[in-house]
Structures are given as structure tokens and as C-alpha cells.
Design brief:
The chain has helices at about 10-35, 55-75, 95-100, 115-125; strands spanning about 40-45, 80-85, 130. It is mainly alpha-helical.
Length: about 140
């Protein structure tokens, strides 16, 4: 989690390739199918893409770019829904690495976000940026 002044260009390019380049390429390839089905594009973003935290600059910049790409796909293709969704803090290895030696067991597991994402998809609000927690969790039968 280097400070921006200490970040190498190669590190930035690797983060951008993963968090922006891959979703851009996949979405462009799948766009004809999304258009034909009036489908939904959902990207997982982060509050680090909208807020500024020490050591999160590379990641945050990539998530801001991902949000922009996602919502621009929606603006350019109004027959699809496009959502950039912040899942909130989760108990992940990346989060643990950001806080070495701290107990992050109070953060929810990633799978707990899924019912909120399903609720967003059920609600089908206008394209935009949302927090997963804005949507009440939906429990599916047989889940």
C-alpha cells in the first residue's frame, strides 16, 4: 500500500490493467449481448474510488476509473442498466493487508454482500453509483 510518491509506474499499470482494463475489455466484448437483452452491467467499486485514504491511491484511482467507465457505458447505451456498487468494508485478505496486525473480524464476509446486490438487481434503480447497504438484503428460497 505505497504512498503515491513512492508508487512505481509499473505498479500503477498493473492495478489499472486488473481493475480497469479487464472490465473494459470484457464489457466491450459483451456489449452486443447486453444490448440485445437490455441487460445490466454491475461493477464492484470502493469508497476508496470516491474518498481519499493514505496508501490507497493506486487502488482508489483504479476504482474511480472503473466507476467512470461503468457509468459511461450506461450513458452511451441507455437501454442497459449500469451500476457501480460499493460493497462496503469486508473481511478480505486485501483489507487485512492494509491493516497489518489489526483484528478485522468485525467486518462482514464478502458473501454477505450478495443478498444486497440481488436486492439492487431486483429494484433496478436508474443507472448510477450505489452502496450495497442501501438495499435491504434479499433472502432467496433454497439459498
Amino acid at each position: 500500500m505505497p504512498r503515491l510518491a513512492d508508487a512505481a509506474l509499473d505498479d500503477f499499470l498493473a492495478v489499472v490493467r486488473t481493475n480497469v482494463g479487464a472490465p473494459l475489455a470484457l464489457t466491450a466484448d459483451l456489449l452486443p449481448h447486453l444490448l440485445a437483452s437490455r441487460g445490466t452491467l454491475l461493477s464492484l467499486t470502493s469508497d476508496a474510488g470516491a474518498d481519499h485514504y493514505e496508501g490507497w491511491g493506486l487502488y482508489g484511482a483504479s476504482k474511480a476509473a472503473l466507476e467512470h467507465l461503468t457509468l459511461t457505458f450506461g450513458a452511451e447505451n441507455p437501454t442497459i442498466s449500469a451500476y457501480a456498487v460499493d460493497p462496503g468494508d469486508m473481511r478480505t485478505q486485501m483489507h487485512q493487508d492494509a491493516f497489518p496486525g489489526e483484528d478485522i473480524s468485525d467486518r462482514p464476509m464478502p458473501e454477505t454482500v450478495v443478498p444486497h446486490l440481488l436486492a439492487l438487481l431486483d429494484a433496478r434503480p436508474p443507472s448510477g453509483r450505489y452502496r450495497a447497504s442501501d438495499f435491504a438484503a434479499v433472502q432467496r428460497v433454497g439459498a
